[in-house]
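Complex 465.
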Amino acid sequence: MTKEVRTRFAPSPTGHLHLGGARTAIFNWLLARHFNGKFSLRIEDTDTLRSKQEYTDSILQSMRWLGLDWDGDLIYQSQRTDLYKAYVERLLELGKAYWCSCTAEEVEAMRVKARALGQKPRYDGRCRDLGLGPAPGRCVRLRLPATGRIAFHDLVKGPIAIDVQELDDFVLLRADGMPTYNLAVVVDDHEMGLTHVLRGDDHLSNTPKQILIYQALDLPIPEFGHVPMIMGKDKQKLSKRHGAKAVIEYEKDGLLPQALVNYLARLGWSHGDQELFTLEELVKYFDGTNLNPSQACFDEVKLSWCNAQTMRGLPLETLACKVQPFVANLGFDTSLARLEPLCAMFRERASDLCGLAASFKPLLVTSSELEYVAKDTAKHFNAQGKVYLEALMKVFQKVEPFTSLPLNEALNAYVADNNLRFKDVAPPLRTALMGFMGGSHLQDIMAYLGPEETQKRLQRAIEMC
Ligand code: GLU
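Predicted structure with glutamic acid bound:
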C-alpha cells in the first residue's frame, strides 16, 4: 500500500499572511486533498522576539477565509521545546552531534579568516573532538560526515546535489537552550509523518542541512519541492509597490477567496492553458507536477480579472449574500431579495465586492438623497433634456406592469414615434435616474426603482434643467 500523502504549511507568525505564503499553503493543501491525504498547520513561533499572537490570529483568519482547512490539531513549535531537546540528546548519544564552547566572536573570527583565504565562511570544527559536555554558553552542533554528496530530486527544480564540504557543523541547539529552525523543522516534519514538503525556494539552502539531520537520525526523508518566489513585474521582490497586499486586506476589499486561490494556484503551476478553475478542478488536477521552476510575476490586473470572472460565475443568491456586508458597511440595510436584482444589473461592471456594493448606491438612496455628477448634469440637463424628460414622465406613468420589458418597449416607442434618436434621449434620462452617466440598462433601473421613485427622479431632474 502506498503511504498516505501528508503535507503542511508552517508559517512564522512575524507578519500577516502574504501572497507567497498563501500560495505555499494552497499548493500543500491541494496536494493533500488531491491524494485524499492530510494537511497540517504548524505555527513556527520559536522566534519569541518577532512572533506575535495577533499575527497567528490573522494567519488563521486568512487560512479560514481562503477555505484552507487543516487536519488535526494546530501545532505550535513554542510548545515543543522538550521534544526538540530529546532529539538533540539522541544525536549526542549517537555521536552525531557535539557540544561546542566557541563564542559568537570566535566563530565570527573563523569566518573572517576563511573569507580572507578566499574560502567559504565556516565554523572550523575545533570543538568536534574535545568531548565537551553541557555548560552555560555552550551550543550543540551537528557532526557532518567528512565527505560525501547530498542529493535529492526536487519536485520543482529537478535533481539537486551539493558537496558536504560546502557546509559546516551547523548549530542544532543554541547557547540559550533554544533549538534552531533546521532542527525543529526536521523533528516536526518527521513527528507529523510528512511525506512532502513544498515551500518557497528561499529555504532551498536549508534542505541539505535538514537532510543531514534526517540521515544522522536514520529517519525517512520526505520529498521536497521548492517553488520560486513570487516577484513584482519588474522582477524585484514583491511588495506593496506592485499592488500586492496581505491576504487579510484582500478580504476587506471584497475579493472572493476562490478567485485568490485560483489566481495564486495558477501562479507557478499550470494545467494546459486553463486560467479559471473551480476548487474541485484544482483539487482534481493538482498532483504536484507541472510546477514551474521559473519565477512567477504578480499581476494585479490579472488577479482583478480573475475575481471579476469568478463573481460573474456565482449564483445570484450567493453573490447577494457575499456583497451584503459590504452594502451594510455603506450604511444600507438591504434584504437579500433586494440585492439579487442589483447584483444581476451591476456584476458585469464591478471587479470586487466593494466596488459592486458602491455601484448600488444610487439605487439605494431616495430621490432627494441622490447625488449628481456636475459634469453630466451640465451636459444633459438643458432645455432639450427637459422636453424629453417631461414627455417620458407621461410615457412611464402609463406603463403597466412596471417591469423591464414593457418599460423598454415604451421608451423605444417614444423614441421611434417622435423620430428621435435613442442616443439623444437616453443621457438626460440616465442622468436623472442615476445622477451620472453610468449604471445598467435604463429599463432595469426604472423597474428596480418602481413607478413612484422613477417619477420623483424625473421630476427632480426637470426642476434642475
Ligand atoms: N516558517 C518558515 C517560513 O515561514 C517555513 C519553514 C518551512 O516551510 O520549512 O518561512
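Residues 10-12, 44, 185, 199, 203 surround glutamic acid (CB under 6 Å).
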